[in-house]
Queue: 2 jobs
Job 1
Amino acid sequence: MRLDDHNVVITAAGRDFGRALAITLADLGARVFLSARTLAAAERTRDDIRSRGTGKVHAFACDLTDPASISDFAHQVAAHTDHIDVLVNNAARYLEGEDLLAVSDQDVIDTLASGATGTILATKNFLPLLLRSVKPDIITMISTAGLPGHARSTAHDAFYSAKNAQAGFTEILSKRLRPQGVRVISLYPPDFDNADPLTPDWHTTPRGPKDPLTSQSLIDCILFAISQPRDCFIKAFHFEEPS
């Protein structure tokens, strides 16, 4: 599919999955508004996209632990366009460790702020631009850690809490925004292989039935969801974990 008529906002696009998604969507013709915690990180992804021959990309700093930074990001995007079609809530700080006492209070605060509060405030600030689109979609990268009863990850309790908060938020948001035509789509991947699109690994990462999930497959799921007719509301993608 082509995305020449799509304006897309992606948080945490300076590295890893957000970067891979930004590069892929820009290659497909989307106009991408990407953010990272630092402007330098966002600009690196922007410059790599431009080097591939597309100029429809803008880079911004956005710290999802800071409400003023989120608001400023949305206002800057609004200065470039009167609507956005897709918001990708990708940012959430990962915190490792199965011992509640092993991390600082500030680590707990930042993890919850970026994943939970940050997702809610980013959605709130960009919703007016989404409501001006004829094809608005909100994509949220959650995790199997956001599923009830999940206990297989070695992530910290605060990360689990942030992901469960995202899951609860998107669940109710899907129902409340449907009358306005906004689709709210959540992805619940386990740990996955995340190759960079500008490296050879992007083309050689195995994608067989016994291999780990890949970022390419997650991007394919997103493309599938947003390409469906507007009567098709895919609420979530759930994935089998490796045995």
Job 2
Amino acid sequence: MEALDPESCGGVSAPGADGRPAPVERVHFRVTRFIMEAGVKLGMHSIPIATACTIYHKFFCEINVDAYDPYLVAMSSIYLAGKVEEQHLRTRDIINVSYRYFNPGSEPLELDSRFWELRDSIVQCELVVLRVLRFQVSFQHPHKYLLHYLVSLKNWLNRYSWQRTPISVTAWALLRDSYHGGLCLRFRAQHLAVAVLYMALQVYGVEVPAEAEAEAEKPWWQVFSDDLTKPMIDNIVSDLIQIYSMDTEIP
């Protein structure tokens, strides 16, 4: 197993000479999309899905992507995330959902040797993931922060501005999509929550009243996180934009 430089974890690599994302980033994008779609079909809540994506990204910060099948790691990440977040999933359900993902319209796998080999592979891979991550598989996610920030923002904005623009829905969607690129490993949970909210406001051209006042002591986003800076927000937004550029290129 070839170890990777932890400093490169979770970032979106610079585009290649053809302007397209690096091949490894495209692999991780596809696999995390699989985790999210499989998670929804398995009835997983947002936090367990986020945990599964984080486990996956963190594993491949330590291990070269060629060392293990990324989709096997993804299935093990889903299984492990269910345990961590106390939403236990049966390996049989994970296998059936995954099989149908790659073979649409097919019947569930028979309980034959192929099924049991795959089940054993998921369980064994889970142990590998735990060892590589040194059993540190509990994470602080941005979701609770975003929820609090949205409540505060709703009180700051006038009712018309809030009702006519889907700021809340957009911010949640941006946060979910951020897990395609592993931003959860590069940025603090509070900072990521503020950045997706900032981007949602920018998308709809909504201005927070306090930000427009010249006498305001600090911008609204610094009220939520006083150690956050505008360049840090710009970095997160830039990474998010690059994730969406991958989404347009990958079928």
